[in-house]
């Protein structure tokens, strides 16, 4: 059921901040974050989601296995470069399993879990940025 991650449509290595939205999914890492739109580090040359066919894409969507999507500066899901740095269909950048125990993603939340790692942040973030939640969720699930 997993898609492949293949060369970006830009045919380049992309390294920047992009905006993603956490979607409703069974992902244990992303519990309690649904609807959040947050900046995240992107750093890859092969990040475009490639599915076998339209039925494969429809199955991922209908089973609610898409965990993150790229959104534009208006908060709308996008396939348009540069808001979607790799050209993935439906802005998909993360997939999870039906159990939610395995989640794969191309962006790098581990690079922006501290507030100081972000170029800008609201004053109310404190020391930890919003991506710290996935690490706390992982500890909760494993501990």
TrEMBL record:
The keyword Metal-binding does not apply. One of its GO terms (molecular function) is phosphoribosylformylglycinamidine synthase activity. Gene3D superfamilies: 3.40.50.880. SMART domains: GATase_5 (SM01211). GO terms for cellular component: cytoplasm. It holds the Pfam family GATase_5. InterPro entries: Class_I_gatase-like. Transmembrane segments: none annotated. It comes from the Bacteria. Its EC number is 6.3.5.3. GO terms for biological process: purine nucleotide biosynthetic process. Keywords: Ligase. PANTHER family: PHOSPHORIBOSYLFORMYLGLYCINAMIDINE SYNTHASE (PTHR10099:SF1). This is Phosphoribosylformylglycinamidine synthase.
